[in-house]
Structure formats: C-alpha cells, structure tokens
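Recap quiz, item 2
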Amino acid sequence: MHTSTEIGSVDLADLRADLPDQMIVTDPDILAGYRQDRAFDPTAGTPLALIRPTTTEHVQTVVRWCAAHRVPIITRGAGTSLSGGSTAVDGAVMLSTEKMREMSIDTATRTAVVQPGLFNAEVKAAAAAHDLWYPPDPSSFEICSIGGNVATNAGGLCCVKYGVTTDYVLGMQVVLADGRAIRLGGKQLKDSAGLSLTKLFVGSEGLLGIITEVTLRLLPPQASACTVVGTFSSVHSASEAVLAITARIRPAMLEFMDKVSINAVEDMLRMGLDRDAGALLVAQSDAPGPAGVAEVEIIREAFESCGAAEVFDTTDAAEGEAFTAARRAAIPAVEKLGSLLLEDVGVPLPALPALIDGVGRIANDNAVMISVIAHAGDGNTHPLIVFDPDDADEHDRAQKAFGQVMDLAISLGGTITGEHGVGRLKKGWLPDQVGPDVMELTAAIKATLDPDGLLNPGVIL
Amino acid sequence: MHTSTEIGSVDLADLRADLPDQMIVTDPDILAGYRQDRAFDPTAGTPLALIRPTTTEHVQTVVRWCAAHRVPIITRGAGTSLSGGSTAVDGAVMLSTEKMREMSIDTATRTAVVQPGLFNAEVKAAAAAHDLWYPPDPSSFEICSIGGNVATNAGGLCCVKYGVTTDYVLGMQVVLADGRAIRLGGKQLKDSAGLSLTKLFVGSEGLLGIITEVTLRLLPPQASACTVVGTFSSVHSASEAVLAITARIRPAMLEFMDKVSINAVEDMLRMGLDRDAGALLVAQSDAPGPAGVAEVEIIREAFESCGAAEVFDTTDAAEGEAFTAARRAAIPAVEKLGSLLLEDVGVPLPALPALIDGVGRIANDNAVMISVIAHAGDGNTHPLIVFDPDDADEHDRAQKAFGQVMDLAISLGGTITGEHGVGRLKKGWLPDQVGPDVMELTAAIKATLDPDGLLNPGVIL
C-alpha cells in the first residue's frame, strides 16, 4: 500500500485517457463524502480518487490500472455498510458502482439481470411491475445497493421464510484482481457444473473480485399477509413467544423491538405504539386461505401463552406495513439518541432468550444503553449500543460492550454477523468464531484470487 | 500418482495400526465392487484399499497417511454417481462413507446433523418422525447418500419450488487435504461471517476436502399435494405446456417423460400408463386451500391449451405418489433397454422446447435411441442415450450423441449438468461451458486447498 507521500506520485493521466471524461473525481470535497460508510469509522483514510464506472469494461480498466500501480481498490455500492465494509484507505481508488444502473427483467425465466448500483427497492419495483417478487428485504432496502446486498449476503425481514440473498443469486459477472472479467452461472435454475464459484463470491465483501452484474431469481408475487402484533412486559417473555411460534410454523416475518426502540420509533413516527411495553413482536403469515388462518391462530396462541398484554391482528395491508415500517425505522430512530455501535449477532434459535438476556446484563455491567431489535424468527439480533461520542469514558464502555456481545454470541454457538458482513469493525472477533484453520483457509483463498491484496484491504482479514 | 508397480510398495501396516481392525479392506473381490459407480466407467482403476471410517478422526488419520505417502483418495458415498464422480483410480484409497451413519434431529432449530453415509431417504424419514421435512429428493433418494448429495449439490423433483441441496446446507465439518478438520457454519439460519466456504464445499465433488458431517435445514412438513397428469401427442407440445405453467405459477413438481420412458416404465410397473402417448407430464401443487385449487386449474388449462389428449387430477396421496414413482423409475426402466449414457443438461426455461426438439434431431442424426425424461419445471433434462455395448459402431454413435447433447445445451445458454455433477464423464465439456478463465480459477482454488492433487483426481479437472 502507498503511504501518503507515495500517493502524490501516482499519476492518473493514463487512467483518465482510458476512461470517459468526468468518470474520475479528485475534488477533495467530493472525496470527503466517500471516505466513510454508515459505520462512520473514524479511522477511514483519504482516497486517491473516486471513480464511477458504468460498464464492466470500465471496471476492468480501473482494476488493470490499479494492479499495474499497486493501488488498492475499495468497492462501494450505496455506502450503507454498517460494518465498515466500504471504508476508504489512504491512497485507494474508491470505486463506486452508483452509476451502474442497468437492469432487465426476463419474465420467461423469472430472472432479473441487474448492475450492482441499483437500489434493492428498484429491483423489487421492477420485478413487481412484471407481477414478480424479489424477496430479500434489508431494512435499508430503499437506500442500499443490490451489489452491496450480494457482497454481504444481506438478509432482511422476510428471510425467516424466504431465505437470504445467496438463495436468489443464480449467476454473475465478476472482474478479477488482474482485470479479467468472468461469467458464472446464468439463468438456469439448477447448475452443478464445476465449483460453486457464484456462491463463493456472494458474501465475499469485495475481497475476491468486483461484481459488475448479477442474475437474480424472482418469485411469483407474495400472497397477501396477515400481520399479528403483540406487546409484552419483558424482552424475555417476547423471546419465549418467538420460540413458541417457530416450534410450530415458519412465519413470513417475525420481528422484535425492545422498549428503547419502541419509544425511539414512537418519538419519530407518532403512530401510537405502547410506550410502556417491554417488547413488541410483529409477525406475519402469508399462507393462503385456511392455512393462513391456522397460522395466525398459532401466533396469537403463542403470544397469549407467553403473557402478551395485547394482541392485535390485521389483514389490512397498509396497517400491516405500518408496523413493518416501524420496525424498519428502529435503527435510524435509535440513532437519534446518540452515536451507535451496531451489532448483528445471530444464534441458533433456542439460544435467543439467553442472547437477549445476556445483552441486558452486558448493558448493566458496562453502564451503557443497549437497545435490541431483531429478526427474531431466524435468531438474528441487532443490539444497538448507544453512546455519547463526546464522553470518552462512555465511548470506552460502549466499545467494551460491543466486544462482549460478540463474545456472548460466539459462546452460544452463534455468529458475529448474520447479514451485515464482517467489514472492518468485526474482524477482530472473526477468528474467535471460526478458528485459526478457517482463517488460514480464508487467507489462502484471498491470496489465490488477489495475490497483491489490492481488493478491499482491511476487510475480513 | 503411483503406477501399479509403485503401489505394491506402499505399506499399509502403519495405517492399520492407527485404525480399528477390519476398517481397511484389501480383498480383491470386495475391492472390485468399489471400482465403479453407477456411471460404470470402463476405465476405472484398481484401488489399493477400501477404508470404511466411522468418525471424522478416522478420516483425518486416513488423509494424513495418504498425504504422507502421496496416495490419492477417492471419496465414495453410496456409489450412485451417474457421472463417474466416485470412480477408482489405480493405487488410490477408496474412502467409503457408508459406515458414517450417525444423525441427530434438533426440533428447536429445525436442523439435522448427519454423517455423510446415510441415505437421503433415511434423513427424510428421521425428519418426518419429528413432523419435519428435508426437501431435496433425487430420484435415487432411497439409495443415494446424503454426503454424495452435498458433494454434487444434488437436485430432484421438488427443487422446482423448494430449491436444491445447497439451499439446505447450513454448516459442515470437512477434513482438508492435510488432515485438519474444520467446522463451517452451524445451526444459525443466517451467517455472513467470512467467506461463504460452506457453499464452496457444496458441489465440490470431493476435490477440496472430505465432508464428514453436515448440518441441514429442515422445513415444516409439506402440505398435501394435488397431482395433475397430462398426456400429449408430442414432446414438443408437452414442453410448451411446461412453459405455459411456469409462466404463471411455481408448481411443487413438474416432471416430463417421453414415449420411450413411458413404455419402459409400463413394462416394469404395469400401472396402466398410456403407451401411445408421445409424452407425459406429472405436475403437483401443494398450495393450501383455494390457492391450490387455483393452481390446479392453471395446470389443467395449460395442459389443455397445449393439446393434452387426457388430463387427470387427484388429491389422493397414494395415487399421486404412484405417478411420481413412475417418473422416478424411468432411469432404471430405460436401463433395461440397453447400456445408457446419461445426460443431465439444463437450460433456461424458454429454451426447453428447443433443447428437447434438438435432442430428437441428435438421436436421428446419429441413429441412436435417446429417451428424454426431465425435471421440466426447472429446465433440467435427462436425455438417456441407449446403446448396445456389444455394438462398437452404435457405441461410437452414442458417444458422439453424448457430446452433441452437451454442445446443444451450452449453445442454448445452459449447463452440462444440473444436478449430477461433472465427475469424469463430463469434464471434457466443462471448459466449453464456463470458459478458460473459470477453469483456471477452479484449478487455482483446487491447488490452494489440495496442492498435491490427491483428492478425487480426475474429477472436474
């Protein structure tokens, strides 16, 4: 990697000659906006240049130039990474996919071929226009890029029934570290030809190549859902209700909010949520007809048997969406209370109550506020550690709690990240989760695909 | 790799000392039964020994010994590979997982932890005993191993709606080429921590490591299905009916048989299939209640609008299973007509009629019989090339047709293997499908994980 002094000596002239005018930006004011992502890593570096390609060929040109000049490349989608997956390093090219926005929907194969810069919501909308559905739905779906979703194997609310991003990726085009572009998979629904390289690139967080096009599987539209909302006196009883549901059915959604997040959302949205509730669960069934009625009954029973104070269900789509939107608003709402350290820990479902109780203990022990929201139905939680950035001691306690939450998840047989990726912020805990042999294998594969280590250095490894 | 002369010099004594008595078999009569799999490759070699471990530690012992003595290892599940994925090479250790048969079902996480030697049907049955469902269902499910299913990313009949093996693999234990055992993933439903190594090992056909334990996701039991059967005068009209269905719904099953396979199955099962039909489609809907009724109506309409001579539907499970069993019996039934070269080509769905028509032309051009059966709903077909093994000229024509069918699938944007894997029989066509860069990347990953090339040499690469 270049030091700042060396950076100055890298001449962009030949790269400018090979790319359309204005594709390369070096204006420091603009660059400043690309240094950090939504993890707001204070150690972010200053990039050499921002490059916004529109085609795979442009990406190849950039990668070849960077390889020749040994300049690192940070690939960035919409910059919504919560784990520092697209944080700049000094002297790097910041390759933004934001202008790669082509898309085509093929109704006959039920697939979408998309460039990485489109927002998840744009892919969903384009599919919906053809009466099709792209399920994965990160809470940030309106502002996160599909390329970032693929790079992190992103999840969302419907994953409890419909799976995560990798389950929808049939193929892709990738630019390798030496500038070659390869095609993997395609529109066929089944393909056992050779190693599962498509799946290896999903979730690779920019370490192995730059994804320039993705072929996504689409489904027929989701059936209309019934939404069931329950309020509980404690996070513990709500987490028990989650298990009572998942032991019997696979709901289409099963989301969790604690008291802090309920109140933060209510402050923001004024929708009449019960500010006194200790926890809120929002569940959905999209099973059609009598099966759906039976599922709603099972959800209601589970809520009631675990002591829900109030249970409410609705088949009104707008009303259901209001509660779903409330849950999706939780991170931005809690963000208004202070700076956040955002967790993404997941555990095997039976350990969910232990995880949620343990997070409460960690908050007490460190005297910090931790709000817990969760995709509870798949055991994936987002403890949000709130701290005052100007209070150095609280910041230290928050950092300590951040590590302890991951330690707890690992001790419960879980993962430090269910859907956001490791990025820079969590890499210190990855070896504890996967062990030294898996770390070595990871490094070996990285070295095979990117021997000079120029692709997203500092992420995962 | 050792030549036969060298093999004689490899002394198994120290390996015998490290493994339980009788775990190593060198009786030539027994070894002979392990040389080939169901692809019956005549070039199969003679193994040095058959080893049947029961634990991961045994596998580690074997792998370390083989690494030290540079002896290749062919991993074999139940030996049902149709592409030569577990064919012996001279001087290799044949590592059979047939005695690795431990399994536990965890109803709370809805997962099964299984050793690789269990049959797919045994995993299904164990799940069903807990009112759970393991969906992937290769036609050979009663005789194929779950380890082989994972190694080939096997498919089956329900995949059109429920996905393939990789969609159900949450984690695994793998013994690497140097004998280290690693754990990947686990019982958590979502996990974005590090590279997607679990998914890389799925479908790796024994090239990257030896899978000794798998954690599988289970679903709630499938709802009862309605089966719709239609007979058509031609394979072309049946393939058009497939598209008319998949354009509107995602059926739970959509299977295809041609005249040759219908008659072969009828010869074997005597169940009253229409011997004059040019093609038969068997579809299922498992959508509950009115949604299922609507799907059955759509299937019936598609059959009728594409000229079905007869359409029949039933909600009787036994009757539905009889037709499904007929389809599953097609390969063994057609096998009675002669030796088989078995294809597994898949195409994006709209190309299905072109593929099926083209296979008919290839049969004519080469004057060989090709029976086509298909998991039609996902575009995955099994053209079965029937030939007399004692007729050298016909054998040559069959071989020529074998390649032409794969060439055709590639030209239609498809794959040479949808679910069986490349094995030894199809590797000559893999570069045409994926191109030289992907082949180079595949070889590089293989070399990283198995630098001495001892794991399943000759498969894929």
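Confidence is low (pLDDT under 50) at residues 1-7 of chain A.
Chain A touches chain B through 90 residues (CB under 8 Å).
End of item.
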